[in-house]
Predict the 3D structure of the following.
Amino acid sequence: MKIRKYFFAMITVCLFFLSFMTYAGSETTLTVDEIMDKMEE
């Protein structure tokens, strides 16, 4: 069950990240590198 929950969590995070990337890309002119830099901070 732990593996299944972890797998489900990873999918959720991936979907959320993809949604964020799409939204950020359409709303701003940020590049992937700039977004990654903000994530690291």
Summary: Residues 34 and 40 are 10 Å apart (CA to CA). The chain has a mean pLDDT of 78.
